[in-house]
Every structure is written in C-alpha cells, then in structure tokens.
Amino acid sequence: MSDIVYISDFFLDRIQGGGELVDDCLINNLIERKYDVQRVSCVDATPEFLENNSDAFFIVSNFVTLSRESKNSLKTKSYAIYEHDHKYIIERNPSAYENFEVPSHRLINLPFYRSAKAVLCQSKLHAEVVNKNVKGANVINLGCTLWSDEHLQALEENLNAEKSDNFAIVDSENSVKGRPQAIAFCNSKEIPYELIGSNNYREFISQLASKKGLVFFSQVLESFCRLVVEARVLDCIITTNNLNGCTSEEWFRKYKGKELLSFLREKKKEVVDTIVSVIKGVQRPSKKGDITVILNSYRRPYNLNMQIEAVKTQSIQPKETWLWVNSHEDNKGWDYSNLAIDRIFNNDHNWKFYGRFAAALLADTEYVAIFDDDTIPGKEWFENCLKTMETHEGILGSAGVILNGKQYVQHDRCGWPSQNKETAEVDLVGHAWFFKRDWLQYLWREKPTTWDNGEDIQFSYLAQKYGGIKTYCPPHPLEKPELHGSVLGYELGIDNKATSTDSSVSHRQFFAERDICVQTAIKNGWKTVNGVAL
What we know:
single chain, alpha/beta, Spore Coat Polysaccharide Biosynthesis Protein SpsA, Chain A, 3 domains, 18 helices, 19 strands
C-alpha cells in the first residue's frame, strides 16, 4: 500500500499545465525522499478505492471531476488540498468580486476545504483570499511554487540571452490569459510585441528570454503565476495587473535575475519540507471515530453512571471520556473514583457553563461531544452526528432553538423536544453538543456578555461570524429513539435543579440574561435563521 496517494483530474502525461507541472515536481521530490507515491485520477478515486487505501495520506490537487461521494469519503481520512486556483467558487474567479469577497451563494466545496488537514496555498495573496472566503480551513502559505531541476536549468542557460526590442505576449487561446487585452495595450502604447508559445518548456523559455519585456494581463486571480516569475528571472520588463499572487511575496521585489534563480532553488526545498511536515504531523483518527466526550457534574451526580453507560454502548465508540466537575453543595464529597472515566477535572469553584468548553481545548481528537448532566444519548447518537456532518457540517446538538424574535422565549424547538425527521438548521443548540475540536477557537474570540449564561448562544454566534459555520439539529425521528441526543429529556431535565427553574436564580433573571446575550450577538453580526432584527 502506498504512503501517499496523489489525486488530480489530470497529470503531466495528459496536460502540460502549470498545476500539472507543479504536481509532477512535488511527486518526484517526495519519491526522492523515499515516499511511495501513487498517482490516481479523480475518476478512479472512488469511495471504494479510498476505503481500501485509508491508511495512506492523500494529497488532492485539481479535483473538478472528483465525485461528491469521494469528497465525503475523504473527509473521514487524512488529506491535504494543494490549491492551484479557486475551486471553492462556482466560477473559480474571486477577482470578479470587490476585495475578492465572494457572496456566500457562489461558494462551493466549503466542508471539503475545512475538513482538510491543510489547504496549501502558493502565495500570500492566494492564502489571504482563501482565508477570506473559506473561513475555518487550515490555510498554509507555502510562499512559492515548484520548478523541476530541469526547468531551473533551462532558466539558468538563458540568463544572458541577447534581447530584441519586442515585448512578449503569450499566444494562448485560453481567455483567462488575456491575449486580446495585452495586444490592445501594446497597440495603444505603440509597444512592439511578438506572440510567443510552445509546448516545449526550453523552447518557450528561450523565446521569452530573447524579449525585452512581457505584457501579461490575467483575467482571473492567479494563485502564483509562474510566467511572471520566469520573466523576472530572465530580466524582462514586466507589464501586468494586480492579479498575480507571486507579486504579493516580499522576495519578488527583492530579487531578480541570477539572485532570484538561486532563491527559487533554495525555496524549493523549504516548500517540500513544509508539505512533508504536514504529512508527518497528521494523527490519524481511530477507525471507530475520533471523539472526546466531556460529561458535566454539578447538581445531578447521580446521573453519571447512566450517562457513562450510554456513552460506552454507543455504536461508534469515543476515544476518551472526561468529566468536568463544578463545585456545588449537591456534589460535595461525591466519590468519582470508581467511574469509568479517563480524566477528571475536579474543581473547587463553579465555573458554570463555559468551564467544560475550556477543558475541551485540551482534547486531541477531531471531534468533541459535550453533555449536560440531564442528557442521556441514544446508542446511535454519535453515528447520527457523523453522518449528519457529511451533509450538514456544523455545530450539532440534541435540542435546537430557532429564534422568532429578539426575546429568547420567542422561539421554536428542534431535536428531542419536537422529533424532527430531517436535519434542521437552527440558531443554537444545547443539552448535547457535537462539533470539531478546532472550532472551539471561535468561542473565545469575543468576551461573553455574561459568564453566568448563554454559552450555547455565544458558540453558535461566534462560529458563524468568524468561521462561517452553521448550527444544526440532526434527525430525531420519533420511531428511532436510538438516534436521539437525549432520550430522557423530560424525565431528567424538568426538575428544581434545572438552571432555568433554580430558586436561587429567578426565572425572570435567567431569561433576561439570555435576551441580552441574543440581542448583543445580533447587534454584533449574528445572522439568525429567520433574520431576526433589533
């Protein structure tokens, strides 16, 4: 079985494009480093093939022809995306929009990008634009692209070429290469030009080296633009626009000619080193699921054995189960030593709602599942959540709330209270949460309005605002309680120990605090399902 499976629409034996040249160079460098690399076209990367090679690390290059089923299969595996253009946009051109900010209805493949261990970008500008539109992805700027030793040698051989007075324009029928725009510019400025082009790299570089300059106006945002860098190595005067990622790198202005060529040779090793570190740094999830469970002990410690049993009998087992203990008279002196728990946070303080989410930052798993102390999941709850993630990636929960007004009490409920048959988008969830551990970063981006209430509101609001992540209730069909996130909600949750009915905290105060949390979030940019406005 191969160490690395390299997936792309086409490889260099089919198409002589820039992306294919870079892929071929990377593959050869990985092979030189003793990796067993298998090239696989997107049409052959079926879900069955991916499952049979699930122990490999996958590098996904151009993937226009990769099926939806294969993308979903890859999301459960270890992979990185080597981004050559902009396949998160329908038209693959962010330059069509002001400040490269693409409307949400034109964005695609977002869960696929966010699930990748890394999205490898080729320039500072490229990475900034991907980050701007694909919030929540692990974007890495490689800072350069790759040339083979043979192509670098061809550049070196042409460093001192004799130049004519003509400027070069690339003779390409591809509309994005801007041939008509370059010709029109030269004609308007009375600049002598010559069309150049060849499928043979050495011949093309020889043509470019013999010209005084290059006129090139890309019609889309180039993630890097090898051509412009090659022209600078060959000491050509460059006339271009602001759609070339390479020009955003500091080294582009610093080096040219022989110095730039030397830099490209050194940078090549650094780029490959970075990619290898991504491959080596991956911790593969266990076959049964990569989940850390966090239970909570506050005023109902007597429910813990029942909760632990429900967790231990899940159809998909968690990696670890932790317990967060908030100090309270009702659990004072309680013996936790005999519980089937991997870690215990036994606090001498009541950290209320946010404490367990702080503990979750220490998890080393892809997913975290948090439960209130009155919540017993059905035996297929984790399986239900993982399946829902494949189609509706977001914060999931067993009790969802859809706000109908600026007061919190004006809401509809989903999940176990309503038995929704299909996945439902909601504004927030509670009782049982299931989410990617990496999303916790968003919960701490803004200080809460109050530490005494509203962690469920805050998490969904900030994940949406900073990560573009929505919140959902997975299916809770009446006839399948095993799928539910809470099977004893009414029996265990409606008592005098519930925070919303606690005599020490008045009902009016509790909901007044939640009103403030909702209104503050909406004021600061939270977009609710029903478009609630203040």
